[in-house]
Amino acid sequence: MRAMFIGMDPPKHDRIKQLFQAGFTPKRIAAHEEEIRRIVVATLEGLEGQERCDLVVDVGQTVVSRVIGSFMGIPPEDDAMWARMMNATLGASDPDLNPDGVEGAVEKTVPEIFERCGEMIAARRENPSDDLTSVLVHAEIDGERLEEHEIVMGFFLLVAAGNDSTKATYCSGMQAILQDPAQKRMLLDDPGLIGDAVEESLRMFPAFAHFRRTATGDTELSGQTIRAGEKVVMWYVSSNRDETRYEDADEFDLTRRAEHQAFGAGGRHFCLGTALARLELRILIEETLKRYPEIALDGRPAHAATQFVNQLKSLPVRLRP
Predict the structure, then answer these.
(1) In sequence order, what are the residues at sequence separation of 6 or more whose Cβ sits closer than 8 angstroms to the Cβ of residue 138?
(2) Most buried of 8, 64, 70, 107, CB within 10 angstroms?
(3) Angle formed by the axes of helices 148-179 and 194-204, nearest 10°
(4) Pseudo-torsion of CA 233, 236, 238, 241, nearest 10°?
(5) Which of 196, 159, 154, 166 is nearest to 68 (CA)?
(6) Residues 6 or more apart from 123 whose CB is under 8 A from it?
(7) 5-208+247-318: which CATH architecture?
(8) How far apart are CA 281 and CA 291, in angstroms?
(9) Quick check: 275 and 29 in contact, CB under 8 A?
(10) What is the pLDDT of residue 1?
(11) What is the per-residue DSSP string for 152-220?
């Protein structure tokens, strides 16, 4: 876990994260808008002729896998394989996402990730490319290359976040929109509000429920004494609905324009993929409503049975009346 920069402290954290920062600036991400829109449109066009679909499986997963795959140098034919492995690992306690159980994920899926990632690492060593996997393979920190397990875990962090986070918030956000015909009509009448829909979706449905940190000194928080070395869980699904900060915190409201902590609370560990996630979410919601303006819920959504990932595993919809 400490081989991922999300679990590192300075100085190593800052040096490794800096390797990727240039590839994830808002300007660089904006340059990918046309390609991301092409991926979304092609996915939605692939539903032509269908009356129904599952937004999680048929749209959300398909789009995000290809977007992060294009950044990492994963060929399109391998998207489903990597999505399966990431879902099984992050949602290990859900029997649909991971039929092998938690022990199976540790004994079977994680070694498979290392093996397949090792094959990509070997290929990039032989033939460097311009993708982020190659950046990891050939990066030097203080004159030294990353060790193989550090490359694997850096790769895992980016592919896992890219596969799960945007899919989670898109599908939960779409569910909220479809449950409220008035707000759906607002978006159809004024697509300029889609940016607000993205932020409210991020507030209400952060992709991950929590992260854990270790206190580096004694402190007190809301009357609770925290000692140096104790573990502190940051529960994002609670902070984003803090009743002292938001009115009607459990209501989806396009006009709220509230701040949130879906990408963290700023500082060193603020999410690297913030600009990419916002762009993907905007295009996904925009193109879904544009192509299927009469889309409606068509069955019972199913939540992933896991404490960490905060997402739907199924969202059945009817595309047309």
Answers:
(1) 124, 128, 145
(2) 64
(3) 110
(4) 160
(5) 159
(6) none
(7) Orthogonal Bundle (1.10)
(8) 15
(9) yes
(10) 79
(11) HHHHHHHHHHHHHHHHHHHHHHHHHHHH-HHHHHHHHH-GGGHHHHHHHHHHH--SBSEEEEE-SS-EE
Mean pLDDT, to the nearest integer, of 47-55?
96
Residue with tokens 């991301």: 36
> Residue 143 CB: number of other CB atoms within 10 A?
5
Strand partners, 205: none
Residues in a beta bridge with 208:
309
Q: Are strands 224-226 and 219-221 parallel, antiparallel or unpaired?
A: antiparallel
- Residue 282 in contact with residue 273, Cβ under 8 Å? no
What's the CA gap between 172 and 184, in Å, rounded? 14
- How far the first Cα of the chain sits from its last, in Å, is 48
Structural domain spans, the chain: 5-208+247-318
Distance, in Å, from the CA atom of 5 to the CA atom of 151, rounded to the nearest integer, reads 11
Q: Residue 151 is encoded by which pair of tokens? A: 């490359």
CA distances from 270 to 212, 230, 231, 262 (A): 14, 22, 19, 10
Residue among 56, 57, 94 at smallest CA distance from 306 = 94
Gap between the Cα atoms of 30 and 22, Å rounded: 13
d(CA 150, CA 5): 9
Of 199 and 18, more confident: 199
- Per-residue pLDDT of 133-169, as tens digits, reads 998 898 887 788 888 888 888 889 999 999 888 999 9
User: CB–CB of 170/278 below 8 Å?
Assistant: no
Measured between alpha carbons, how far is 96 from 100 in angstroms, rounded to an integer? 9
Helices (H) and strands (E) in the chain, counts: 13, 11
Instruction: Write out the H or E segment, with its range, that includes residue 226.
Output: strand 224-226
Task: Provide the token pair at 105.
Answer: 């994920």
